[in-house]
Amino acid sequence: MDNSDRPRVLVVDDDPALRELLAEYLGASGFAVGTAGDGVQMRERMAQAMPDVLVLDLMLPGEDGLSLARELRRSSTLPILMLSARGEEIDRVVGLEVGADDYLPKPFSPRELLARLRALLRRAGTAAAPATAAEAPVAPRRTFGPFTVDDASRRLLREGIEVPINGAEYDLLLAFVKHPNRVLSRDQLVDWFKGYERDAGDRSIDVRVMRLRRRIEPDPAHPVYIRTVRGEGYLFNPRAEAG
Fold first, then answer.
1. Which residue range is the domain that position 32 belongs to?
2. Dist CA 16 CA 168 (whole Å)
3. Among 54, 69, 126, 206, which residue carries the largest CB count within 10 Å?
4. Global model pTM greater than 0.70
5. Residue at 101 is within a domain
6. Are 91 and 50 in contact (CB under 8 A)?
7. What are the beta bridge partners of residue 139?
8. Among residues 75, 98, 124, which one ends one of the domains?
9. Which one-letter DSSP state was computed for residue 152?
């Protein structure tokens, strides 16, 4: 994989023609591109150079994409865009549940893939050039209950101890923390985080809320911080008051 200052993407797919197409297109679009045909090659490429974002096919020979994403999530917050030839909702939901940050069904437009990768990198703070010391704003530390949301390091802390959380979950939590005691609709949240055309039945936000509740709620089945407002969306309640 190229060692330049360009954002690094690793494409893991068992279709050589698709790997070649994406390597050419993403390379011409400003990425340093690496490719792999299976999980073994993926690990080899990542040992040589860790990418900034991963494109991971669901259906791979040997270990499938779900297993690889689950493995990566145990030790990494690397942004993951998952691909699937089937495009069924259950695939999308399971992919998001195991830790993928976004999901794209095949066939897809390379332009849409590029837009999604750039959105993931923006959320992760990778694609933008770093600010100088004079320009860098002082990032606030926001607190609720025993938790601290540290914008400077994009970390979630519980009584000073870091809570594992990936980029998509962090961004969703930050949106809630910035808009306390206000109902945020699913459509509004999807528009904020995706910014491109989507299916009317997109349930990715619901899956991410479920995962986020597992990080912060004393009892995820009876949430006190992120409450569901039936028919409207979600409301963040920083004081964990009864609804």
1. 8-124
2. 29
3. 54
4. no
5. yes
6. no
7. none
8. 124
9. T
